[in-house]
Amino acid sequence: MAKKVLIVYAHQSSASFNSAAKDAAKEVLAAQGCTVEVSDLYAMKFKATATAEDITGDVKNAAHFRYAEETKLAWEEGKLCADITEEQRKLTEADLIIFQFPMYWFTVPAIMKGWMDRVLTLGYAYSEERRYSQGILKDKKAMLSFTTGSHESMFSADGVNGDMNVTLWPLQNGILHYCGFQVLAPQIFWAPSRLPSEARGTLLEGWRTRLQGVLAEKPLSFTPLDCFDGEKGFQLKPEFQEKNASKEYGLTVGIHLGKALPPNSQMKAGV
Questions:
Q1: Contacts of 126 (CB under 8 A, 6+ apart)
Q2: Mean of the pLDDT values across residues 105-126?
Q3: What's the pTM value of the predicted model, to 2 decimals?
Q4: φ, ψ for residue 118 (rounded to 5)?
Q5: Distance (Å, rounded) from C-alpha 185 to C-alpha 164?
């Protein structure tokens, strides 16, 4: 069966490297028979702020508005505003979601963060019972594809920006994996604005090559939810702590158990 792909794209210029990366993904995946939709957030003038205006009609508690609870009710009652409903439709239909963006301040641009805040609503994308490895969106794959302003050496364990694996943890674990996505290794284009045209072309060719098999890629590894004791504050169960006691590295970037971080665990699958 043909796969469906959603590209959530955030760049202001059609002449940008990010635009070229988005176009390459659309072209290569479509050539494989995929149906590809693009949410061009700047062109859509997508609203980045999570407010009561995201709900049609009255809210339950206007005196103390709580976005997560109110949008959950609105989702259940079909009262979310049209732009959120449309993006949730695209996401529901997609097998793979690619987030294409320039890294701003070590994270996604505000307009893309707004997409995540507003589209991944409580009840639709996650719940207290269904998150992480048991998440609602666990049958879907997602990946980050982005450009940096800094060279790769600056995002290393001894570089001035710090380890890119640490930078990626809040996005890949705290948003994507939290909702259940199978998170594919990120596609990082290191400082393309500092490269000559020929080198930028080489980066895009590497991306095109990866896209040929991206749908079959194995995801990054995360510690399964059932390794944690829900009755004891979701702490790692003793048997899993003991199993890892003699190992050199912690389990993940975040769940490191006071050990050295596992190298490249947020950048490569199978490590």
A1: 120, 135, 136, 137, 178, 179, 180
A2: 98
A3: 0.96
A4: -90, -35
A5: 12
